[in-house]
Amino acid sequence: MDSTEATRYPALTADLEVDVVVVGGGIAGLSTAWELTEAGQTVALVEADRIAAGVTGYTTAKLSVLHTLIYDKVRTSFGADSARLYAESQQRAVERVAAVAAGLRIDCDLERVPAFTYAESTDNLEQLHAEAHAAADAGLDASFVTETGLPFPVAGAVRVEEQAQFHPRKYLLGLADDLTRRGGQIFERTSATGLDEGNPCAVTTEAGHTITARHVVVATHYPVFDRALLFARLEPRRELVVAGAISADRDPGGVYLTPEQNTRSVRTAPYRDGQRLLIVTGEHFTPGAGEVTEQWETLAEWTRQRFPGTQIAYRWATQDNTSTDQVPFIGRFHPGTDKVWVATGFGGWGMSSGVLAGQLLAARITGSEPPWADLYDPGRLNLVREAGSMLKLQAKVAGHFVGDRVRPSHVDSVDDIEPGTGAVVRVHGRQCAAYRDDTGQLHAVSARCTHLGCIVQFNDAETAWECPCHGSRFGIDGAVIQGPANQPLQPQDVAGG
Fold it and tell me: How far is CA 317 from the centre of its chain?
């Protein structure tokens, strides 16, 4: 975000008719819109805020097919052919970025590097060996190794060649420029609030305008419409990120991830002369978990210990949604439609999966059926594979939905809320989300998430209200930061509370 110009696409101010309307301006939405425009479709993309500035604007940007320990899981759950299709489709997405960037002459800091999933403990070596074999059987240039470019020893790692890292915002802004040159339209600050699946379809906006289209693509990270009940099969999580400069000669030369230690992900990016920007991710947690400031310090301390001398210059958090069977949902929004499409559930691997979504959805909308379409089809529900994960997820949601309504607050009234802190407190019989800023002014909104009514919790590190059920996030004024909610939390009068 710091190294690119802000975008200034207009808001939608009149009704419009196109072939396809794409809802969401992240990597999945922009990739889909661009692929469709290249295929000759008329396309309008609507984004509630600014394009490539939400989850995609704050990604760590690994463009890799090595998704932690996915291949052994896919082979076990879906079969060897499915693992091969997963590998082939994801690698094609990596190559698509490289080809498009070269073809459009987009300078997006693309670097080809190996990818590693590593372990420091010998306890996890069996998993790594199984993953290396499964990835190789799936057609990837994968191997088990004991040496990496990290400045600390590992017990073992899966290594996959010909992966990449890049600057996704530079890439996507280049796509956006080319999309509009081809006649595609982008509308920012245009929130989609309604969907009519008639013939043609219609998307209505918060400002009351309508876009009619033959097809609609919902690419809002977490679907803002619940027609397919995908919220029952998606689990949101947030991860913290820290970044700081290191000398270029200390670059570990790859993209790295370990599931150990509450996840640690490492990669670098071009920075100033003689330096690389070290980016470290980890300390994942469920939105609405509450206080996370200590986790940020834990991650920063790990970074300083493993890469001595790193001066932390940036910190942020990102959010991901994982499907109950670990494979993204890309395809028809629900079994009863052939006009509404969805891309979600990337499980932390949105760079390759978002580009793949663009290729897959554009192909299906224009009449082709890629061989991996069934693998990603949202209608693939298999209760044998997903029952355990779905039951666990829904039990957690039910626990929040019921328990958070009766759980006492850590403060008795709004008067007890200190400057710079927030709390859910009952006022006049209603639960309010109240935050007192550093000047002492109180900001109070309804504590009920506008998605399905769960009670939000305060994130002290990011000064935001978060829903622990489905991951919606709101500002202290109640404005939607992140869906699936598409309506704000309403202001509350707490006088006398």
Answer: 11
Residue 113 and residue 163 in contact, taking contact as beta carbons nearer than 8 Å: yes
- Percent of the chain at pLDDT exceeding 90: 65
Pairing of strands 264-270, 275-285: antiparallel
Cβ atoms 148, 256 nearer than 8 A: yes
Q: For residue range 115-153, list pLDDT tens digits in order.
A: 999 999 999 999 999 999 999 999 999 999 999 999 999
Report the candidate in 214, 199, 180 with the shortest Cα–Cα distance to residue 20: 214
Q: How far apart are CA 359 and CA 433, in angstroms?
A: 42
Q: What does the DSSP 8-state code read for residue 9?
A: P
Q: How far apart are CA 463 and CA 481, in angstroms?
A: 11
Retrieve residue 61's tokens: 């940007």
Query: Measured between alpha carbons, how far is 107 from 121 in angstroms, rounded to an integer?
Result: 39
329-339 pLDDT per residue, tens: 999 999 889 99
3-state secondary structure of 305: helix
* The residue type at 161: E
Mean pLDDT value across residues 197-216: 96
AA identity, residue 473: R
Q: Give the length of the chain.
A: 497
CA atoms of 381 and 110, how far apart (whole Å)? 36
Q: Tell me which residue has tokens 């929004």.
A: 333
Question: Which two structure tokens, joined as six digits, stand for 108?
Answer: 């997006």
Helix (H, G, I), strand (E, B) or coil at 484: coil
Both structure tokens of 312 = 């932390």
pTM for the full predicted model: 0.86
Q: Are 91 and 98 in contact (CB under 8 A)?
A: no
Asked if 321 and 221 count as a contact pair (C-beta separation under 8 A), the reply is yes
DSSP-assigned letters across all residues of 72-134: HHHHHHH-HHHHHHHHHHHHHHHHHHHHHHHHTT-----EEEEEEEEESSGGGHHHHHHHHHH
| CB neighbour list of residue 171: distance below 8 Å, 6 or more residues apart | 97, 100, 101, 106, 108, 110
Q: Cα(451)–Cα(468) distance, rounded to whole angstroms?
A: 12
At CA 204, angle to CA 202 and CA 205, rounded to 5?
Answer: 150
Q: What's phi and psi for 87, nearest 5 deg?
A: -60, -45
Cα–chain center distance at 30 = 14
Q: How many CB atoms lie within 10 A of CB 308?
A: 10
